[in-house]
Structure formats: structure tokens, C-alpha cells
Design goal:
eight-stranded parallel barrel, globular, two-stranded antiparallel sheet, 347 residues, alpha/beta
Length: 347
């Protein structure tokens, strides 16, 4: 399996934003030193749940300093970006990382309507904007000058410079938070990023994805290649003992999810607007072993990672610093995972 460190630093106090950003950069360098395959970056705005907010700015800083790890985005909230600008920025990062870049695209937002409100975007347009933007980006990467007359953008684009380092373009992968989007990706023969799900749901959806690809005429080799390129997101905490991990991880995870729900509810109370969270869409810490957060000793966590490996996905995007967890605690967990768990699954 491949392992990624998902930098998702939470800051509840604006006065601490700079401190948390500095700690996040230290976490990225530690992950690189420990042999993480990909450092993943998120995009969220206005609420501090991913305090650096601009993943492209952070990616530029990291691309110049990481020695081993590549960079991935999980995911861009594409509706908030101009597609040509985003295509240019990704091409530049593709050169800085010498091809170790994964461009994750999605609607994003984790149901936070204020992300769209702050940029003056109707959240109901997010999917259509994503579809149109991806088409524009692929065309800009792979061809010369072109014109585009779409619903959201009317463009006369000269040939994009610089040309991509990776040919024909950096790997593009979409987030799939629901079954409908997963089925669509399977039919198109594209890999996926799956957000936090229970083991049972993850297993069922990977089986659905495989079955749909086969029914759409894709062969076993293509299915295996796509699964190897697909990633699932998990929150992870490794401690010396199971009891210590449970003592720290479960209340930390509960506080994190409660704070995020409170922000969504407060905006709804103020504006009367929300993006509804489907029932059961965000698994709780105590829903089942490892459903919301994989936690335990290295041996216990390895058992849960083995269960994911058996499902057949190629990589795990792991959040080690959950919510307001101190940096030092997350760094210790990350170190235990990469030294005691990850080596059991390296090819």
C-alpha cells in the first residue's frame, strides 16, 4: 500500500493561526523524513478547520523542500477556482515536484455552505462548475490554443505555458463522496478518492466500483490499475497501548466533529441556509472499530490497515493531527505509524 499524510490542521483561535501553520510545515517535513509517499492538502475557508486555507500556496513552499514525498490535493473546491489559472498553477507544481503531483478535484466543502457564500458562488452550481472546469483544464494541458464557450466560462486561450512536466498531464483524480459519483467514475474508467467511511461501506463501495467497471467493459488489468491509483481517507492515531489510544483518540475525534457541526449549525441559524448532511454520512468515533478513527497500538492499527489492504485500495490518506490535538502528540503518532505499521505493507 501507499501511505499519505493528510495535513488538516485545525485552529479555533485566530491568534494561533500562524503557530499552527508553522507546526503544519514541521509535520510535513517529518512525514517526508519518515518516508510518506504523498503529503496531501485540503481546501477549506473561513472556519480554521484547515487553517492554511490556500493549499496551492502551501504546496509551493513544500515542493521546494520535500525530498521524497510527492504532493496531492484532496480536494480542490473547483467551483472556487478559474480553471485556466488552476491549470497553470498545477503545471508549475508538476515541474517543481518533478512529476510527483496528484491533482484531486471535487465539489468539496464538507457541507460548509459558507465556503461558497464567501466567494459569491451558488453551491448548487458546484457540480456543473467542476465538470466544465475539468474539461477546460485537460484541454489546456494537452493541446494548443483553443476557444471555449460554456455555461460558466467563455474563453480564448493561447497555448498554456509552461507545458506539463508529466505527459500528457499530471494525474487527475476525483473525490467520490456518494455512490452516484463512484458509479460515474467507474463507468468512465477513472480512479477515486473516498472520504471517511465505515469499513463495511468502504468494502461495499469498492465492490460496487469493481462490478460497475466490469459491466462498463473495462478489463481486469484496467480495474487493478484504477484500484491501485485510488485512495481512502482515514483518521489515524497510534499509541503505545490500545487503552492509551482510545483515551486520546475518541474524545479528540468527537470534539473535532462536534466543532465542525456547530459551525454549520451556527451559519444556518444566522442565514437560514445549509447544505444538508445525508444521514450516516459522517461516521462517529464509536460507530464501529476504526470507522471514524483507526486507533490503537501499532499491532491493532496494523490489523485495521490490513483490512483496508484486503479490500484492494491502493493507498490510505491518513490524518494524524485531528482537531485540536497538540502537534507533538500527532508527530509521535505519525512516527509510530511510519516506523511500526507502514513497513508491514510496503511492496
Amino acid at each position: 500500500m501507499k501511505f499519505g499524510n493528510f495535513l488538516f490542521p485545525d485552529s479555533r483561535d485566530p491568534a494561533r493561526d500562524g503557530i499552527v501553520i508553522d507546526e503544519t510545515i514541521r509535520e510535513a517535513h517529518l512525514a517526508d523524513e519518515l518516508g510518506v509517499d504523498i503529503v496531501w492538502l485540503a481546501e477549506h475557508h473561513f472556519d480554521g478547520i484547515s487553517v492554511y486555507a490556500d493549499p496551492i500556496g502551501l504546496a509551493g513552499a513544500l515542493a521546494a523542500t520535500l525530498r521524497h514525498a510527492g504532493l496531492g490535493f484532496a480536494v480542490f473546491q473547483v467551483a472556487l477556482h478559474h480553471p485556466i489559472r488552476l491549470a497553470e498553477q498545477m503545471t508549475f507544481l508538476d515541474h517543481l515536484t518533478k512529476g510527483k503531483l496528484i491533482v484531486g478535484l471535487g465539489r468539496g466543502s464538507s457541507y460548509n455552505i459558507y465556503d461558497y457564500q464567501g466567494f459569491g458562488i451558488d453551491h448548487r452550481e458546484a457540480q456543473a462548475r467542476l465538470d466544465e472546469a475539468e474539461d477546460i483544464m485537460l484541454r489546456a494541458w494537452t493541446g494548443g490554443a483553443f476557444e471555449h464557450d460554456g455555461r460558466f466560462w467563455q474563453l480564448q486561450v493561447p497555448m498554456l505555458r509552461p507545458r506539463p512536466y508529466t505527459r500528457p498531464h499530471p494525474p487527475v483524480i476525483r473525490g467520490a463522496s456518494g455512490e452516484a459519483s463512484l458509479i460515474e467514475l467507474a463507468q468512465q474508467g477513472k480512479p477515486f478518492l473516498m472520504n471517511v467511511r465505515s469499513f463495511e461501506t468502504t468494502r461495499d463501495r469498492v465492490a460496487l466500483y469493481t462490478r460497475t467497471m466490469r459491466e462498463a467493459g473495462h478489463g481486469d488489468e484496467a480495474i487493478a490499475r484504477n484500484l491501485d491509483a485510488s485512495w481512502v481517507w482515514r483518521n489515524v492515531f497510534v499509541a503505545e497501548t490500545d487503552s492509551e489510544a482510545e483515551r486520546v483518540a475518541l474524545p479528540t475525534f468527537d470534539a473535532m466533529t462536534a466543532a465542525r457541526a456547530e459551525m454549520r449549525n451556527r451559519i444556518f441559524a444566522e442565514t437560514g441556509m445549509r447544505i444538508a448532511v445525508p444521514p450516516g454520512d459522517l461516521p462517529g468515533a464509536r460507530a464501529g472499530r476504526g470507522d471514524g478513527v483507526i486507533h490503537g497500538s501499532a499491532a491493532t492499527v496494523a490489523e485495521d490497515i490490513a483490512a483496508l489492504d484486503k479490500i484492494g485500495v491502493g493507498g490510505v490518506i491518513a490524518v494524524f493531527r485531528m482537531g485540536l490535538m497538540p502537534h507533538e502528540q500527532a508527530a509521535e503518532s505519525l512516527t509510530r505509524f511510519m516506523r511500526e505499521v507502514a513497513p508491514q505493507f510496503r511492496r
